[in-house]
Design a protein that fits this description.
The complex is a heterodimer of chains A (285) and B (295). By secondary structure, chain A is an all-alpha fold. Chain A contains 14 helices and no strands. In chain A, helix 1 packs across helix 14. Chain B has two domains: 54 residues, no CATH class; 236 residues, MetI-like fold, CATH 1.10.3720. Classes of the chains: A mainly alpha (285), B mainly alpha (295).
């Protein structure tokens, strides 16, 4: 058997389980081949552009507007998903009612339904002559072919992220905390809003981040409902596709690089807020 | 719609007596109604309209749209791409989960982050990286074309983009599950004289089969439904490099709504089957799946 050598640096802790070399070898070579080489190609391409070219391409007005629309609508949709996602998770965890299982299963629909299908379905629903659109038009509310339509599509796409991160944490909440709050004279509303919800903050934030990240990059469900008017309802991924079709590879690369950098920085910020709030409030973790 | 909250006090006694840890009946019904309305508006109606639009002109028009040769070509291509991409990522997923869940080594957290990378990259960018790698302006492009190898605007490119996008699915399901299960079963098998492969086939695989099936289902749903990445690399050659989601887009943009929604019904049925199997698995093997859900 192995004798531990405490002073030596070890890549891995000794184990009797075989197959580490093979498993890690397969994992790393596949990862490098399929993910890392293609992604570093993007990094290399944007670095060869040179700083001034990159800056000119990235600060082009149409690009700036597209980025603003992508990040703005994704932010609004993720906010809406936090509200409705927490509500849905609460109802699914706490209440027993007819059809609960079906609703629970339906929440995963946006994961399973191809985005193009979601896109044409939502567009048909919210178009001025659609089932919902025809009800909203008399109220002066236009959803399809406006930025609001983008938000609606992103709400559809992002919903399961919030529900599925919050739900398991909610199931683990210790009932005694609520009982304690109630015996100390808190109203039910106070217990929920001041005791339970703050503890869910890390999970909610994770859900928000996932829904937001997904929304920023979403393409299939959005392009049908957006109307795709340059400067108004044109999302950044669509602009990448347009630049590619024009064989303007530098511009496409620059937009992609900016999107990746912003998403990466935001996830980093959210991760650190999350770590902080988990220390401060969190359940489970 | 009904009923009691899952509070200890409300189980046997009358519903009139409200437990201190549940909401008033009015609030409960209100919240349930609000969530039902939201689910109905955002999830049920979009699904329903796919089927009603496809059948708007009756089953005859529906089947005629499905029988179109271009649609058949798209179905065949979609099945082919999934048949290549899913097994590849299945093998990768098992290998990655084995290395990450069964061993302690330096850089494990970093490796896990790298595996999740495709989740945080826009599908369009996932397609773009392959255009930059294999396109005519790239380093590899001239070499590939001089050797008569077509990657972009052909099946290999579509497969690559799909593999990229579906890369984390199986691994992401298996890692938490296998971490929870630990290594004691395998250690017992090994100490009784089983070989490494025997341990894997007879001990590990039966333990993870439901989580594995679930991961494969999600991976397959995404592989067949991927739009953005595939759209960038496919070149949209009708009857040649159009997958089903791309066929939906083309038909829809040509105002052939019956055709678009007919193809969309097939994809929606795939989604429904995925959800039903997933729910059955969760219902029957909730304890095993629950571990995988906590990520």
């Amino acid at each position: 058997m192995t004798i531990s050598l405490p002073q030596r640096w070890q890549f891995r802790q000794p184990s009797v389980i075989p197959g580490f070399g093979l498993a890690l070898g397969v994992t790393l070579s596949w990862l490098i081949l399929v993910i890392l080489i293609p992604l570093s190609g993007l990094a290399w391409r944007s670095s060869t552009l040179g700083w001034s070219t990159f800056w000119t391409l990235a600060t082009d007005q149409r690009t700036l507007n597209a980025l603003k629309i992508s990040f703005g609508t994704a932010f609004l949709a993720a906010l809406a998903n936090v509200v409705f996602g927490v509500l849905l998770a609460w109802v699914l965890v706490r209440y027993r009612f007819f059809g609960r299982r079906v609703i629970d299963a339906m929440v995963d629909l946006p994961f399973a339904l191809p985005t193009a299908v979601a896109g044409i379905a939502l567009t048909t629903l919210y178009a001025p002559n659609g089932w919902i659109g025809s009800l909203l038009t008399p109220l002066g509310l236009k959803v399809a072919f406006t930025p609001l339509g983008i938000v609606f599509a992103l709400i559809f796409v992002g919903l399961p992220f919030v529900v599925r991160t919050v739900q398991p944490i909610m199931e683990e909440i210790d009932r005694e905390v609520e009982e304690a709050a109630a015996t100390l004279g808190a109203t039910r509303f106070q217990t929920v809003s001041r005791v339970l919800l703050p503890g869910l903050a890390p999970a909610v934030l994770t859900g928000f981040a996932l829904a937001f990240a997904r929304g920023v990059g979403e393409y299939g469900s959005v392009i049908f409902i957006a109307g795709n008017l340059p400067y108004v309802s044109e999302i950044a991924p669509l602009l990448i596709v347009i630049r590619l079709e024009e064989f303007n590879y530098p511009a496409a690369t620059a937009i992609a690089a900016v999107m990746l950098i912003i998403s990466f920085v935001m996830l980093l910020v959210i991760n650190s807020i999350q770590a902080w709030s988990r220390r401060r409030y969190g359940y489970g973790a | 719609m009904a009923h009691d909250a899952v509070a200890p006090a409300s189980s046997g006694t009358s519903e009139m007596v409200r437990s201190a840890t549940s909401e008033s009946r009015l609030a409960r019904y209100g919240l349930i109604a609000l969530s039902l309305a939201f689910v109905g508006l955002f999830l049920v109606l979009p699904l329903a309209i796919v089927f009603t639009e496809a059948l708007r002109k009756g089953p005859g028009a529906f089947f005629e749209a499905i029988a179109d040769p271009e649609t058949w070509a798209a179905i065949r291509l979609t099945l082919l791409v999934a048949a290549i991409a899913v097994p590849l990522n299945l093998v990768f997923g098992i290998a990655a989960a084995w290395a990450i869940a069964k061993f302690e080594f330096k850089g494990k957290a970093f490796l896990t982050t790298l595996i999740d990378l495709p989740f945080s990259v826009s599908p369009v960018i996932s397609g773009l990286v392959f255009v930059l790698l294999f396109g005519s302006h790239s380093l590899l492009g001239p070499w590939l074309s001089s050797h008569g190898i077509k990657v972009l605007f052909a099946v290999p490119g579509i497969v690559l983009a799909t593999v990229f996008v579906t890369f984390p699915f199986v691994a992401r399901e298996l890692i938490p599950l296998m971490q929870e299960q630990g290594t004691s079963d395998e250690e017992a098998a090994l100490s009784l004289g089983a070989s490494g492969w025997q341990t894997f086939w007879y001990v590990t695989l039966p333990n993870i089969k439901w989580g594995l099936l679930y991961g494969v289902l999600l991976c397959n749903a995404r592989a067949m439904g991927e739009f953005g990445a595939v759209s960038v690399v496919s070149g949209h050659i009708r009857g040649m490099t159009n997958t089903m989601p791309l066929q939906v887009e083309i038909l829809y943009n040509e105002y052939n709504f019956i055709g678009a929604f007919a193809v969309a019904t097939l994809l929606a049925l795939l989604a429904l089957v995925t959800l039903v199997i997933k729910s059955l698995l969760e219902f029957k093997f909730s304890a095993q799946i629950a571990a995988a859900r906590k990520h």
